[in-house]
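Run log // design_07
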């Protein structure tokens, strides 16, 4: 078992780093959605403005 871990240590580390990056990206998207936006720009010109915030609200 330990021989396998030693032989694949680089791959394991890279996979763990990538999994961490993906987890942070997902967390960021979820936080943005909870705040009411996801693109980071103004909603005045957005075609989906009505579905995100309701009528008459510009973020």
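design_07 sequence
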């Amino acid at each position: 078992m330990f021989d396998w871990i030693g032989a694949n240590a680089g791959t394991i580390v890279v996979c763990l780093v990538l999994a961490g990056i993906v987890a942070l990206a997902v967390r960021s998207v979820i936080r943005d959605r909870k705040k009411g936006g996801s693109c980071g720009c103004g909603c005045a010109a957005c075609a989906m403005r009505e579905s995100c915030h309701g009528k008459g609200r510009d973020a």
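The chain has a mean pLDDT of 81.
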